[in-house]
Request: fold
Amino acid sequence: MPATPATESRRDRARSATIDEIKRTALDLMREQGTTDVRFTDIARVMGMTPPALYRYFADRDELLTELIVDAYTELGTAVATARESVPEKDIGGRWWATASAYRDWARGHPQRFALVLGLPVPGYAAPEEGPTTEAAKRAMSELAQLFVAAAGLGRLRKPLVRGVGAAMVRCAQDNHPELEGVVPHDTFQAMLQAWASLHGITSLEAYGHLDWLEPAARDALFRSQVLMVAKAAGLPAPASTAA
Amino acid sequence: MPATPATESRRDRARSATIDEIKRTALDLMREQGTTDVRFTDIARVMGMTPPALYRYFADRDELLTELIVDAYTELGTAVATARESVPEKDIGGRWWATASAYRDWARGHPQRFALVLGLPVPGYAAPEEGPTTEAAKRAMSELAQLFVAAAGLGRLRKPLVRGVGAAMVRCAQDNHPELEGVVPHDTFQAMLQAWASLHGITSLEAYGHLDWLEPAARDALFRSQVLMVAKAAGLPAPASTAA
DNA sequence: TGTACATCAGTGAACGCGCGTTCACTGATGTAC
DNA sequence: TGTACATCAGTGAACGCGCGTTCACTGATGTAC
Reply:
């Protein structure tokens, strides 16, 4: 009998394969239809199954949605982290550029998933308060934050224009991100939020098609200009290269 | 017989009143349900009518949606323009602050409508190419642009960090905004887009609830800091006041 | 190794619901003479 | 001013469709002895 670890039987593997297929199909349909909606009936049809079969894997539609949201946050966070780590630690500007580009690329590659996590909350889906989605969001966020913490540590971060914000902000922030306690100075956190907001603005406009009237080369240049502007405003050094 | 101008009979007035009520009801329902969706059945029920009655006023659901989108663009553009004009022409920084604040306030006041025009396109709604919605979008956009054109005219606009973008960008821009021909220099247009993107980022994050973990005062301060950062990066002077 | 039982994936029928849209109609409002 | 007709708002019934979800079931896969 070939190695079938007691912790994961053949049935278990089949099961998680099916779960993956359900999710993948759901994402395919979202992309195909350009929606953040997800219909059990459609998924089942595409998979050659009957709708009730899906209830073996998800208690209801919301449970699937929750998993998709968590996955999206995780994947976005991982994409950003991977890109950042592919650039030498000392090249802070380069890391910011890589981070921003990864954020953009992920959003363009998965506009519906991007909207799912960072757009208007989905119709009829009540996100569980303090639930797994919030946790996933925090984790993705802290991937973005890391860069700014590192920059601040090296003294490469400019103070925000309007200060004194930190007091109130960090109070809230630490309620929600206790892991940052004492680690992230007020101003660093604020600088990160502002950089993120600027990045998010151009990224979401582009991902949702509101810059389609610009030709691709112009969109690229605009994005590059925007990311460099943000870096400069935050006091980050210029990247060694903006090739990638 | 009291003044009933031949151009608008009593029936006509009743008719446009009903159209307004339909739209208003649709917006109420969108807000109530937190969706960009709109259902004829619901609207009719709230208005105490039967669904088929709505077909006297709109050919189908898409036609209503198109009007709602056009209205939203127009209202957003007007809100921005009004705020801008309420500040003395010379106080460019103040005008930018007013513009940005109006953009934010409108988005916070109508998150669903904001998503309707600037979020992920609505499920199942095919925006008519080159149609009225595109026109409305351009008009709203040019309200934002005006400020930067004026600033550039007064020599108060810094050149973007990455230049040479203008060439490609303006070529596309002029295809779509021929009214800007010769009026708006490349760099001004680019500066405007970048400022808009940054503004849009923080605004949409807040409007969709992704900054809810920050207390209101901190959100206000963050927004102010962001808007001032954008102004500084663009070379706009500091506003005389950021009270409003 | 073989047999008896338990587990679980998936089916098919059904329920209740809501949707957009059509159609023939009624009744009220406006218009022409 | 009154009457005959045209216009139009709104109704009620119906069509076809799709949705999420439940339930009792079948048949295959895994497990215990």
Residues 11, 14-15, 18, 49-50, 52-53, 56-57 of chain A lie near DNA strand C (CB under 10 Å from a C1'). Chain A has one domain: 59-242.
